[in-house]
Amino acid sequence: MHKPRSVLLLVITLLFIANHSWAQKGPEELSLKSAFSGKFDIGAALNLKQIYERDEQAAALIKAQFNSITAENCMKAMYLQPKEGEFNFKDADRFVELGEKYGMQLIGHTLIWHSQAPEWIFIGKDGKEVSREVLIERIRKHIHTVVSRYKGRIKGWDVVNEAILDNGDWRQSKFYQIIGEDFIELAFQFAHEADPDAELYYNDFSMSQKGKREGVARMVRKLKVKGVQINGIGMQGHLSLDYPSLADFEASILAFSSLGVQVMITELDISVLPIPGPSQGAEVSTNYQYDQVLNPYGEGLPVEVESKLANRYKEFFALFVKHHDKIDRVTLWGLTDADSWKNNWPVRGRTDYPLLFDRNYQAKPFVRELVEMAKE
Ligand code: G3I
């Protein structure tokens, strides 16, 4: 082999290694959290394998790239209090200990959610639906027990999740049907009582939809008029390649910020897969039958799709940087593509590519452009 060719080969190899290994080593100048420092926190949702540090590569990536973590599931009411009065804090305690060990901002997700509420909470001893008073007391007990346990250790709580529909109406959840709309005010009040220093958030999906934007703004205005402490609005950010428009998303950032609260992008992912039904949201109860047509990239992502994904991430992060004075945090809903809920929702058994790090824990090429963008 001629000398020049072997040198060229060596240079290419070294460049490839350098490009793909920076994400794990995370030297200061090449990490997301360092790049966006001073603009907004960068977070990731962690699953139990990561919370228990059973995956060394994941642990390295988390420490190098993020300064905020959210428990993807283990702090939901159905896991924390599966039976009335029986609390299971093992996983949540481990999550909080891990966050403190890593020096992370900790986000509690989520106190009141229609989708993962334990069934017992709505049923009385007589097997019938509980009264308004009983349900209020059960909510109070859950929130006081959970929030006071981590008092002073959790930066902020997703107090209520997904209570408003896309058209701005109230979701007809059991919380709403039994207590009425003031279940929201009560949840925020109980959380504030339990930890007066914790930030308190309302979190929802499809927040770029005009109806939802107006419904959430109406609700938050009412809470603030009543003197209820609400510090932020979480826009989940479950996006796809062509929905929602950047303009609609920006309109919601501006609308929510104008209410005098912080805006957070709380569950960011960008799916590259076809959407099988009318819904563009994250209504976790929606599911569709598997069909190969719905899973076009099982063997890998075509370059042109990779390029579309890169452009979507770059335009949204450019928007976040533009409004970094309004945005407190951007959290990715998972660490690597392999961890994403999108591989199994709304169709089980698909291969999606919605996050910043691939199935080999490597940063996708466009992530370096996000880091460069942050420095501009
Ligand atoms: O841990 C059990 C496992 O033991 C069992 O074998 C398996 C059987 O299916 O289920 C596993 O639990 C699953 C859990 O994720 C952990 O993987 C639950 O079935 C599944 O419902 C649960 O899905 C989560 C979903 O919320 C519902 O809680 C997703 O991981 C999580 O990403 C998703 O996140 C929500 C946010 O909390 C709120 N915003 C919408 C977002 C997407 O739905």
How would you portray this structure in words?
This protein has one domain: TIM Barrel (Alpha-Beta Barrel), CATH 3.20.20. The longest helix is centred in the N-terminal third of the chain and has 23 residues. Helix 12 links the parallel strand 8 and strand 9. The chain has an eight-stranded parallel β-barrel, surrounded by five helices. It contains 13 helices and nine strands. The chain is globular, with a radius of gyration of 21 Å. It has 376 residues and is α/β, with parallel strands linked by helices. Helix 12 runs parallel beside helix 13. The model has no long low-confidence stretch (mean pLDDT 94).
Brief digest:
The chain is 41% helix and 14% strand.
Tally of domains: 1
Gyration radius (Cα, Å) is 21 Å
Give the biggest beta sheet.
Answer: 8 strands, parallel, barrel
Q: What would you say the CATH architecture is?
A: Alpha-Beta Barrel
Task: Quote the average pLDDT.
Answer: 94
Number of strands: 9
Given the helix and strand composition, which structural class is it? Answer: alpha/beta
Q: Give the name of the CATH superfamily.
A: Glycosidases
The secondary-structure element order is: HHEHHEHHEHEHHEHEEHEHEH
Ligand roster: ligand G3I
Strands across the major sheet, in which order?
A: 1-2-3-4-5-6-8-9
The general outline is globular
**Fraction of helical residues:** 40-55%
Pick out the low-confidence regions. Answer: none
For this structure, the quaternary state is: single chain
Report the total helices.
13
End-to-end gap: 43 Å
CATH top-level class: Alpha Beta
Strand percent estimate: 5-15%
Q: Indicate the CATH topology.
A: TIM Barrel
